[in-house]
């Protein structure tokens, strides 16, 4: 398998992973919206946001998942993902330093994670998103100019 084919495959795998991840987190919030609102109410900083604005979180996640379907939008979408993951990583680090353990609002698969595990998971997601950007950049530089 050629390097460019391997890079293209890795990029598509990352796109599929992030698309699935963001779709899962969004739909799990919509599926049990009342639980999401209850859990969000106890999150430091997030709890102060008015209830009707909390719909923005799952809508943003599903929007990112949908936008990843369009190859010409992937680079800006991955930059948005990197920014959002960085914010979440800092927030989770803040919770870890403060000694606050609250259930995750990302969905049932992640609720059992400790703050450290969640922090580690977010760091891995951030590295994967950075890897996707590098793959996108390398595919752009290798593609022929017309």
UniProtKB/TrEMBL annotation:
Name by which UniProt lists this protein: Methylamine utilisation protein MauE domain-containing protein
Cellular localization per UniProt: Membrane
Chief location: membrane
Keyword check for Transferase: no
Membrane topology value: Multi-pass membrane protein
InterPro entries: Methylamine_util_MauE
Protein origin, superkingdom: Bacteria
Residue ranges constituting the Methylamine utilisation protein MauE domain according to the UniProt record: 10-134
A biological process from GO: methylamine metabolic process
GO cellular component: a single term: membrane
Keyword terms, alphabetized: Membrane, Transmembrane, Transmembrane helix
Listed transmembrane segments: 49-70, 77-96, 116-136
